[in-house]
Amino acid sequence: MATQISTGTSELRDITKMERIGAHSHIRGLGLDDRLEPRANSQGMVGQAKARKAAGMILKLVQEGRIAGRAMLFAGPPSTGKTAIALGMSQSLGPDVPFTMIAASEVFSLSMSKTEALTQAFRRSIGVRIKEETEIIEGEVVELQIDRSLTGATKTGKLTIKTTDMETIYDLGTKMIDALAKEKVTAGDVIAIDKTSGKVSKLGRSFARSRDYDAMGADTKFVQCPEGEIQKRREVVHTVSLHEIDVINSRTQGFLALFAGDTGEIKPELRNQINTKVAEWREEGKAEIVPGVLFIDEVHMLDIECFSYLNRALENELAPLVIMASNRGMARVRGTKIRSPHGLPVDLLDRVLIVSTKPYTETDIEEIIKIRCEEEDVKLTDSALQVLTTMAGQTTLRYALNLISTSQMLARKRKSDKVDVEDLRRSYTYFMDEKRSVEWIKMQEGSLIFEEISQAEAGREESMDF
Ligand SMILES: Nc1ncnc2c1ncn2[C@@H]1O[C@H](COP(=O)(O)OP(=O)(O)O)[C@@H](O)[C@H]1O
Ligand SMILES: [Mg+2]
């Protein structure tokens, strides 16, 4: 059967790539030099040298396309930079290499099964680089004439376009007129129209029109009127993920679903068809697989069914590199009574490269606080910096970083542009860290409502014994 599989256009990528930053917005890479040695303070990264180097080595293998279907695990206490390093890795990947980040708890949703959610995450992380020949129309617009029907419902028009060698008139339908209107195309523009997708791009204004200063903005770009044929064939390369191909070709969804982000479940038969098609394209040299990276944060939140899915999926020919992070020591594997390192079943652990992250030294903490202050445009007095560093040591780094913006608010209230010890002290009384919160809960016994947990479950379910 000759199935028609469409791959959409490269524009889709920008829309579906979601960035989740905020706490990690200062991270711009792993901060390694050419020999993969960690620099002391670079690309927003400080300390955690061994883990960064290990991450860099794995990254290198990914970039060379030499690693896929493997898994690595960042294991370490909370606030030791596991998520930060994973994001650093994602920023060092090329724009073409897919990187997907999920928190394990996202897998448990009402709208789709756990395995479907994981399958989608896997397929988001595999890119297909497709070479296509498209026909484009390229030239300088001589005239654009649009006629509206009396009601305005239908439009017809004519586009006269030229190169230095020839001139042609095209009839326009409503869709093309809208596309031209959206790009605000007028006579004198040099444009390219992709004939398959109908996409119009403005390349600039023709030099011949450079005297029409009334039609010129400060950022107007002037280009030469193209030479030769108006219609040209051109090879274009774009990368889409397998998941995007799935969604675009799913009849019930259509590619609008990608904009809504609500893709629902996708039928296995369709995925099989797509896999077959992609394999065909690879054989014909039309497509290349770009294995990307899937990052599963807080992976101990997955249950045994998910873990066995992971085990199987990693065997698949089309598997990305899977990076996981866990802050558990010995913990119960969810859905079982078994306790296992990091809350991962041993058969999965067995195939995983484990990289451990360690608590930061005081100097590292101070550096990270400084970086965050710069990122958030906050000034600390020297003594405030010292106090915050000590606080981070006693609570967690993340707690201390959170106090930066709240303290700044308090500093502003007293009309100061520098955060001082007093602001930190007040923030500290407003917002509890984990330790104090636990103590407070103990003190409130009787007046807070607690969820009932069965005796068996309550029996030391998880512990963090790093
Ligand atoms: N090595 C580092 N360099 C710079 N910032 C870091 C580093 N490690 C952690 N951070 C920052 O500290 C905070 C806590 O780290 P995070 O990666 O969330 O810890 P984890 O995921 O291990 O719990 C985040 O804001 C993170 O960006
Ligand atoms: Mg984390």
From TrEMBL:
<dbReference type="Pfam" id="PF06068">
    <property type="entry name" value="TIP49"/>
</dbReference>
<comment type="function">
    <text>DNA helicase participates in several chromatin remodeling complexes, including the SWR1 and the INO80 complexes.</text>
</comment>
<dbReference type="GO" id="GO:0000812">
    <property type="term" value="C:Swr1 complex"/>
</dbReference>
<keyword id="KW-0804">Transcription</keyword>
<comment type="similarity">
    <text>Belongs to the RuvB family.</text>
</comment>
<protein>
    <recommendedName>
        <fullName>RuvB-like helicase</fullName>
        <ecNumber>3.6.4.12</ecNumber>
    </recommendedName>
</protein>
<keyword id="KW-0227">DNA damage</keyword>
<dbReference type="GO" id="GO:0006281">
    <property type="term" value="P:DNA repair"/>
</dbReference>
<keyword id="KW-0234">DNA repair</keyword>
<comment type="subunit">
    <text>May form heterododecamers with RVB1. Component of the SWR1 chromatin remodeling complex, the INO80 chromatin remodeling complex, and of the R2TP complex.</text>
</comment>
<keyword id="KW-0378">Hydrolase</keyword>
<dbReference type="InterPro" id="IPR027238">
    <property type="entry name" value="RuvB-like"/>
</dbReference>
<dbReference type="InterPro" id="IPR042487">
    <property type="entry name" value="RuvBL1/2_DNA/RNA_bd_dom"/>
</dbReference>
<dbReference type="GO" id="GO:0031011">
    <property type="term" value="C:Ino80 complex"/>
</dbReference>
<dbReference type="InterPro" id="IPR027417">
    <property type="entry name" value="P-loop_NTPase"/>
</dbReference>
<keyword id="KW-0805">Transcription regulation</keyword>
<dbReference type="InterPro" id="IPR041048">
    <property type="entry name" value="RuvB-like_C"/>
</dbReference>
<dbReference type="GO" id="GO:0016887">
    <property type="term" value="F:ATP hydrolysis activity"/>
</dbReference>
<keyword id="KW-0347">Helicase</keyword>
<dbReference type="GO" id="GO:0003678">
    <property type="term" value="F:DNA helicase activity"/>
</dbReference>
<dbReference type="Pfam" id="PF17856">
    <property type="entry name" value="TIP49_C"/>
</dbReference>
<dbReference type="InterPro" id="IPR003593">
    <property type="entry name" value="AAA+_ATPase"/>
</dbReference>
<comment type="function">
    <text>DNA helicase which participates in several chromatin remodeling complexes, including the SWR1 and the INO80 complexes. The SWR1 complex mediates the ATP-dependent exchange of histone H2A for the H2A variant HZT1 leading to transcriptional regulation of selected genes by chromatin remodeling. The INO80 complex remodels chromatin by shifting nucleosomes and is involved in DNA repair. Also involved in pre-rRNA processing.</text>
</comment>
<dbReference type="InterPro" id="IPR010339">
    <property type="entry name" value="TIP49_P-loop"/>
</dbReference>
<feature type="domain" description="AAA+ ATPase">
    <location>
        <begin position="68"/>
        <end position="359"/>
    </location>
</feature>
<keyword id="KW-0156">Chromatin regulator</keyword>
<keyword id="KW-0010">Activator</keyword>
<keyword id="KW-0067">ATP-binding</keyword>
<dbReference type="GO" id="GO:0006325">
    <property type="term" value="P:chromatin organization"/>
</dbReference>
<keyword id="KW-0539">Nucleus</keyword>
<dbReference type="GO" id="GO:0005524">
    <property type="term" value="F:ATP binding"/>
</dbReference>
<keyword id="KW-0547">Nucleotide-binding</keyword>
